[in-house]
Design a protein that fits this description.
This protein is of the alpha+beta class and 378 residues long. The protein folds into two domains: 3-213, Class II aldolase/adducin N-terminal domain (L-fuculose-1-phosphate Aldolase, 3-Layer(aba) Sandwich), CATH 3.40.225; 229-374, Class II aldolase/adducin N-terminal domain (L-fuculose-1-phosphate Aldolase, 3-Layer(aba) Sandwich), CATH 3.40.225. It is 47% helix and 13% strand. The strands form two sheets. The chain has a seven-stranded mixed beta sheet with strand order 3-2-1-4-7-6-5, sandwiched between helices. Strands 8-11-10-9 form a four-stranded mixed beta sheet, with helices on both faces. α2 packs antiparallel against α3, α5 crosses α14 (333-353) and α9 packs across α13 (299-311). The longest helix is centred in the last third of the chain and has 21 residues, at 333-353. It is globular and about 65 Å long.
Length: 378
């Protein structure tokens, strides 16, 4: 096996197994070959933890990938047509002998700009900064003594727009520091860490995460007392009826209660924090957006809330945070695990971000871009 591929599989599996670092198939990784001609990168739609020697990655010719981002004609195309063209070019850039239409990560262009080994994740502790009003200020303070500080990337939609914005900012960084940035914080997105080899990239990642985590307020450990079983059963039944009413599907409903959920459902601003909407693209792509806040768990009121969400052009939610009771998830067993990770993650990020000036969610325009290009109609 090529050493670059072996390194890619190792860093992908290691980070992908930690739900605090990434959820579902989010995040992407890449490693370039020693001769600088090729790049192994995670395949789109593949979970990092599932990558192995036979699947979950593609090998690209870097000269062809660089050619994509240098093509000024692409920027003039309508977004949907442009992204299809880029997918086609990425597929023709593959040189791995894999007879598959599985495409390289949507961020292949961005990875090509950076150092040899690249790790892009959506850790919860990073979400506290990149989704808050004062996040950039906090990051600047945290790393003010660094000779080569992190690069902050203002929000841009995933794919080509993000690669174009990043290429300009990376070029400016190189002019100033005579080297590419090793750390990039992406607003409403996550973090990129890059180094000359996999061990250095992993060490740098953990250094940054520890530094950011130590600056966050610690949640007090509560003495948890779950609601009575009959209350949980009644809410499950109400949600199940509402889901059938809205979608026509009979789905199992799971109840989840932990320290983070207990803190959130009793906050006076809980409804307001959720009403602000999704914080980042992955939240929309993998779990149909933000959990729905439920004041009164009656089938009619829950169904009414779900139908309103659908009328707004969104898919029906799968997660429900019920005031004073807990988190409920309406989904099959496999999907419920993913929804749980995102739901508990997003409420924790919202709690933390409220300490840094408040949450900064995706705007309606930013949400609509994700819907058009990455999410099928409800």
């Amino acid at each position: 096996m090529d050493k670059a591929l072996a390194d890619l599989i190792k860093i992908s599996n290691t980070t992908g197994r930690n739900p605090a670092l990434t959820q579902a198939a989010g995040g992407n990784t890449s490693v370039k070959t020693d001769n600088g001609k090729f790049m192994f990168i995670k395949a789109s739609g593949t979970a990092l933890k599932d990558m192995n020697a036979k699947r979950g990655w593609r090998k690209l010719r870097l000269d062809k990938v660089h050619g994509v981002i240098k093509d000024k004609k692409l920027a003039k195309l309508p977004a949907a047509r442009r992204e299809l063209e880029i997918i086609s070019r990425h597929l023709t850039s593959c040189c791995d002998g894999i007879a598959s239409t599985t495409r390289p990560s949507v961020e292949a262009n961005l990875h090509a700009l950076l150092d040899k080994c690249v790790i892009h994740l959506h850790p919860l502790v990073i979400g506290a900064y990149v989704n808050s009003k004062k996040g950039r200020v906090e990051i600047t303070k945290l790393f003010k003594s660094e000779k080569y500080p992190p690069l902050w990337i203002p929000y841009a939609p995933p794919g080509f727009p993000l690669a174009i914005k990043t290429s300009r900012l990376v070029a400016d960084y190189q002019k100033r520091y005579n080297k590419k940035p090793a750390i990039m914080f992406l607003a409403k997105h996550g973090i990129f860490v890059t180094a000359q080899n996999a061990p250095d990239a992993m060490r740098l990642l953990h250094k940054i995460l520890n530094c950011c985590e130590n600056n966050l307020p610690k949640l007090k450990t509560l003495r948890l007392k779950p609601p009575a079983a009959k209350i949980i059963l009644a809410v499950k039944s109400a949600i199940q009826k509402a889901v059938i009413n809205t979608t026509g599907r009979l789905l199992p409903v799971t109840f989840i209660y932990n320290n983070e959920i207990a803190h959130f459902i009793n906050r006076p601003d809980a409804a307001k924090l959720l009403a602000m909407g999704p914080l980042e693209p992955a939240e929309m792509v993998y779990v149909n957006g933000t959990p729905m806040w439920v004041e009164t768990p009656s089938p009619a009121k829950i169904a009414s809330g779900m139908k309103k969400i659908v009328r707004q052009g969104n898919k029906p939610v799968s997660a429900f945070l019920v005031k004073g009771i807990g988190l409920f998830i309406a989904a099959d067993k496999k999907t419920a695990t993913i929804v749980k990770d995102f739901a508990t993650g997003t409420i924790l990020v919202r709690i933390w971000a409220s300490h840094f000036g408040g949450v900064v969610p995706l705007t309606k325009t930013e949400q609509n871009f994700i819907k058009r290009l990455y999410i099928a109609a409800p």
